[in-house]
Every structure is written in C-alpha cells, then in structure tokens.
C-alpha cells in the first residue's frame, strides 16, 4: 500500500477525475488543497475518495514538508508527491527531491529563462531574450532602454518568468511604451523577461512519459496564440493526424527538447513551439503538467486518452499503460469575453459534430479578458474527415458566437457568420 499526496492550489481549475486514481487496494489518497479547488471537488462529490484532506493557504516548502512528515510517521510502504497545478510544480519538485523521491527539482519546467539557457546549450533555436534588471534600469534608464531595443527590436513580448495563461503578458511596439512599462514595473518583486517576437505558427506538443522515456507524443496546431486570445481573438487547437509530416517532425523535435531540458521521471509535459515560414522551430516554453481548456477532452475523443489523470497515474503506478485507441479527428475553439452585457448567442452551422459550452447566459455582464481562461464559451468538434474538420475549425476561429451591449450600443464579437 502506498500513500499518494496530491497538492492543488490553483486559482484557475481543478478538473481532475479523482475516481480514475482511486484504487483503495493499492493507494491511499491524500489531498492538500485551497478553498477554490476544494469547492470544485465537492461539487463532483469526490472529496470522499481521499483518506484525509488538508484545507490550506500555506503552500510553502516547510509547511508542506511538515504535513507530509507528520502523516508518514506511522506509515509503511512507498509514497508519492504529485500535482497538476502550475503553481505547485516547483514546490512539489523540491519536496520530491527532499524525500529522495526524485533526483532533481522541477524549476526547469517553471523558470522560462532557465529553460532557454538549457535550450541554448543544446544548440536549439529560441527567441532572443533579456531578464529585466530593475537596478540597471534605475541606474541608467536611457542606456538600458537602448540596449533592449538594439538586442530585441520591436515588437517585444514581456512576461513573468514563472507564470501561465498569459497573465501579465504584454506586447510592446515602440520606445515610449517600453519606457512606460519599465517605469511602472522596475520596483515590482516579479521577475520579468523581455523576448524577441517570432512570427510563425504555434504548435503544442504533449508528451506522456514513463520511466524517463517518452512513450507517446501528440502534436496539435494552434489557430491563434494565448496572447492573441487576451487581445480579443479566439484560440484553439486541432490534433494533427499521425501521418502528417509536421506531426512526425515535431515528435523528433520534442525528444530533442526533453533531452536538452532534462527528461522528467514520469508524467505529462506540455511544450509550446513556433514554426516559422522557413520551417525553423523556435522553443517557447515547456511545463510538467497537463495542458488546459479542452485539450484533455480533445485527446480523449481522438485517442481515448486524456491528459490530467494520466499525468498522475504515470507517476504513481508503474503498471499503468496508455489505453490508446483512435477515434474521430478532433479540435476545439474557445472564444473570449467582451466587456458588456450578453444579449444574443449564435449557434454555428458546420458539417462536423460539435458540443458548445457557455460560461455566461443571456443578460449576464462580462468583464474584459485578463488571462487565457477568460472565455465566454468553448466548442469541441470532431469528424472522421480530417480535411472537413480543418475547414470547420478555422471557420469557428473567426465565427461570431455572440453580441454584447455596452452603454446602449450593440457590439458584435465578429462581423460575419457565413460559411
């Protein structure tokens, strides 16, 4: 019998189906969780599957270490410490290393600058970048700004080195905007990086890993980037068929990236990469967690394997194997909120089957988009005909799903609704 400690302190979601991890003859499940995630768990009536739950706001290393140490005093057998929350990856890795459950922590899957340094050593391409140095800016702002502009050129992408969902990400187009940003941020405690903007198509490469080896990778093509989404465009991905040359290319590339970054022992990784018009791949970032939004549902429909539960099972159960079974080709689209009152919804007419989910109802007031999960609704679509699915996917990527009213004026999400 082994103990499994799941750490969950996300403020975004907790969509894990705990029933898929519940094997009382093999595992005792323990949960350290925040209030937001616990409420979602109780709505699914899955809190009863845990031996014990600690409701906490302190997810620091020392506090979590004491909880686990105290609980393990009278325990026998092995134990695991796992998470699917981006906010907990680093501390979870530190705890595993402390308890000799892993040889390294997982800061390489959080710190975007460290990722790029490892990618650089391996000779792979990445956007040029600078760490924002508030002291250097304060000492000589004029020269500091000149160096940034000469090194990166405009536009420049600025983001925290350890965040997800495009939180606090900005795109800077000129020197005045850059100076304004620096003036606002140079006293903050958050560490930022400034990146060269690379033009191209974004792809996701999601890998399933067991015993330090990639056992399967699925590649998906993005309609728009997460940053495009917070600027008002839709976002979504379509899972590429395995005979597609781009799929095969990125499977090989993904292996190179993992060797450069350092292969994790087990779990799921989520890699983001840009492919330029001249077919050069530029590394963006990688995480040791399941991807979000409808990607797990897309893979479940297409491959009979989701991502959230396998991420945990691959780490805690050496006998677990992926139940891969091909289904219809699949894709998803999420459309962002628009500030105003929702007054009308539109249902698309496409040839692919689909399931449309709304977050808001008619009459609800929506705020502006501030992060990658601020969507008004989302669509999962599937079809046995891949080419038709692609047509429907890109049609939905510019579809007008709703109208809002703001200050007595009608605002359409898009201008056309014709296929």
Mean pLDDT across all residues, rounded?
90
Q: Give the total of domains.
A: 3
Q: Low-confidence runs (pLDDT<50, min 5 residues)?
A: 414-419
As laid out across the biggest beta sheet, the strand order is 13-12-9-10-11-14-18-16
CATH-defined fold name of the largest domain: D-amino Acid Aminotransferase, Chain A, domain 1
- What portion of residues is helical? 25-40%
Largest sheet: 8 strands, antiparallel
Number of helices: 12
User: What's the CATH first level of the largest domain?
Assistant: Alpha Beta
Report strand %: 25-35%
Shape: globular
In the CATH classification, which architecture of the largest domain applies? 2-Layer Sandwich
Brief account:
The chain is built from 12 helices and 20 strands.
How would you portray this structure in words?
Helix content is 29%, strand content 28%. It has 419 residues and is an alpha+beta fold. A hairpin with a 2-residue loop joins strand 9 and strand 10. The chain contains twelve helices and 20 strands. It has an eight-stranded antiparallel sheet with strand order 13-12-9-10-11-14-18-16, with helices on both faces. The chain has a four-stranded parallel sheet with strand order 3-2-1-4. A four-stranded antiparallel sheet has the order 5-8-6-7, with helices on one face. The longest helix has 17 residues, at 245-261. The protein has three domains: 2-105, Rossmann fold (3-Layer(aba) Sandwich), CATH 3.40.50.20; 128-196, 2-Layer Sandwich (Dna Ligase, domain 1); 200-405, ATP-grasp fold, B domain (D-amino Acid Aminotransferase, Chain A, domain 1, 2-Layer Sandwich). The protein has helices at 35-43, 61-72, 89-98, 112-121, 134-139, 141-152, 175-185, 226-230, 245-261, 295-303, 308-316, 386-396, and strands spanning 2-8, 27-33, 52-55, 79-82, 129-131, 156-160, 170-172, 192-196, 201-210, 213-222, 235-239, 267-275, 281-287, 329-336, 340-345, 353-358, 365-366, 375-383, 402-406, 409-412.
């Amino acid at each position: 019998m082994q103990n499994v400690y799941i750490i969950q302190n996300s403020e975004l979601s907790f969509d894990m189906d705990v029933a898929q991890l519940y094997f009382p003859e093999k595992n005792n499940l323990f949960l350290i969780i925040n209030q937001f995630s616990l409420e979602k768990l109780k709505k699914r009536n899955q809190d009863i599957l845990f031996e014990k739950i600690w409701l906490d706001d302190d997810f620091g290393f020392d506090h979590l270490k004491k909880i686990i140490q105290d609980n393990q005093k009278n325990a026998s057998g092995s134990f695991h410490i796992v998470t699917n929350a981006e906010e907990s990856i680093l501390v979870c890795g530190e705890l595993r290393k402390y308890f000799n459950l892993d040889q390294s922590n997982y800061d390489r899957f959080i710190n975007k600058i460290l990722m790029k340094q490892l990618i650089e050593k391996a000779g792979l391409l990445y956007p040029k970048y600078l760490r924002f140095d508030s002291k250097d800016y304060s000492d000589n702002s004029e020269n500091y700004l000149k160096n940034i502009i000469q090194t990166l050129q405009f536009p420049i992408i600025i983001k925290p080195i350890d965040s997800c969902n495009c939180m606090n990400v900005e795109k800077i187009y000129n020197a005045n905007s850059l100076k304004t940003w620096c003036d606002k941020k140079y006293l903050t405690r958050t560490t930022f990086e400034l990146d060269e903007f690379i033009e191209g198509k974004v792809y996701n490469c999601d890998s399933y890993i067991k015993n330090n080896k990639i056992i399967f990778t699925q590649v998906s093509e993005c309609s728009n980037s997460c940053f495009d989404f917070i600027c008002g465009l839709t976002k979504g991905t379509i899972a590429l068929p395995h005979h597609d040359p781009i799929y095969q290319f990125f499977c090989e590339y993904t292996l190179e990236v993992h060797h450069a970054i350092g292969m994790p022992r087990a779990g799921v990784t989520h890699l983001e990469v840009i492919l330029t018009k001249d077919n050069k791949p530029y590394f963006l970032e990688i995480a040791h967690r399941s991807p979000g939004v409808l990607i797990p549902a897309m893979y479940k429909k297409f491959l009979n394997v989701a991502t959230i539960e396998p991420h945990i099972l691959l780490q805690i159960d050496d006998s677990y194997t992926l139940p891969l079974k091909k289904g219809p080709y699949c894709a998803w689209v999420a459309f962002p909120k628009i500030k105003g009152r929702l007054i009308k919804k539109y249902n698309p007419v496409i040839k692919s089957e689909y399931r449309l989910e709304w977050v808001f109802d008619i009459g609800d007031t929506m705020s502006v988009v501030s992060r990658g999960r601020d969507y008004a609704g989302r669509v999962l679509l599937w079809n046995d005909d891949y080419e038709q699915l692609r047509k429907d996917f890109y049609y939905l990527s510019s579809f007008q799903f709703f109208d809002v009213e703001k200050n007595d004026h009608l605002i359409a999400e898009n201008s056309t609704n014709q296929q």
